[in-house]
Amino acid sequence: MASTMKAMVIRRTGGPDVFEEAELLIPEPKAGQVLVKIAATSVNPIDCKVRSGAVAILPPFPAVLHGDLSGTVVEVGQDVRKFKEGDEVYGLVGWTGGEGGALAEFAVCDEQLLAHAPRSLPLDEAAVLPVVGITAYQGLRRKIRLEKDRMLLVQGGSGGVGHIVVQMGKAFGAQVAAAASSDEKIAVVASAGADWTIRYDQETAAQYVERITGGKGFDVVFDTAGGANLPLSFEAARRGGDIVTIAARAIVDLSLMHSKGLNLHVVFSLLPILYGEGRAQMGQDLEAIARLVDDGLIRPIIYPRTFSLSSIAEAHRFLETESHYGKVLVHVQ
């Protein structure tokens, strides 16, 4: 194997044009780590925020970004028990701690942050699942225990997290409504299995709550937009219901939440990567998600336009237009 690899790095924060190609040494796995030859990665909103400097999460420069990956184990470090050379895996690389990111031909990964890739998906497509799958699973299984026949509303149902929440909600036996902003995106949430669809730009919360729940409200609202959208989720929930959000960085009036006795749950799936606690649970969640995929209960929806490692700037620029649906895939090999 060669000693160097191609990578896309940033040496400062800024717009998508800060990405540049670099030749880096292929890292060596330490104890508990494996070296993965990366097949693909995907773009998540957090990747764009890190690149732009909008959040205070940044590995040392020159920084290799992105956490999602799929690929093949080519070398194992000491004390690795879960994987062997040749295993196809998917999961996360702990890029925030200087372990390197997924925008490279190879990465060393903590074995706890990986699982065997779903057998029923092409290996490159598995790369779109880790962040969104873990976020959905933590929200519906770890934060709450979504029960059969509960009424679930997914705000932003055609997005990366949203379309997985729709499918996972159905897999867990819920009755699912999903909101989106265009006819194209409504078709996406319908294909994901939503029982009801909502054009949120054409219906008020009061109107769709009456139409779908008879005015009672939803048992669970999974809000992928957050921020200024949270009060709409409070309005859509039944008294005593649960709100799960992945975007709580906002100043929001909680009066309605208080008066309805709602429970607010925040999911920030990168915490184990940032602080090291809970990494084993992430691996367990990835294993559970792979089983759901192989059981035919989840299938990621990938936007038709895909990108290569060299065109990562275009991939970031495209994601920031918010015109996509599902997930944006980046082929590395």
Textual characterization of the structure:
The chain has helices at 45-52, 130-143, 160-171, 183-191, 205-213, 230-236, 255-260, 271-275, 279-294, 312-320, and strands spanning 4-9, 20-25, 33-43, 68-76, 88-92, 106-110, 114-116, 151-155, 175-180, 196-199, 218-223, 237-245, 263-266, 307-308, 328-331. The protein is of the alpha/beta class and 333 residues long. It folds into 2 domains: 4-129 and 272-331, Medium-chain alcohol dehydrogenases, catalytic domain (Quinone Oxidoreductase, Chain A, domain 1, Alpha-Beta Complex), CATH 3.90.180; 132-266, NAD(P)-binding Rossmann-like Domain (Rossmann fold). The strands form 3 sheets. Strands 3, 4, 5, 6, 7, 14 and 15 form a 7-stranded mixed β-sheet that branches. Helix 2 (130-143) crosses helix 3, helix 2 (130-143) crosses helix 9 (279-294) and helix 5 packs parallel to helix 6 (230-236). The longest helix is centred in the last third of the chain and has 16 residues, at 279-294. It is globular and about 65 Å long.
Concise structural overview:
The protein is of the alpha/beta class and 333 residues long. 29% of the residues lie in helices and 26% in strands. The strands form three sheets. Strands 3, 4, 5, 6, 7, 14 and 15 form a seven-stranded mixed sheet that branches. Strands 10-9-8-11-12-13 form a six-stranded parallel sheet, with helices on both faces.
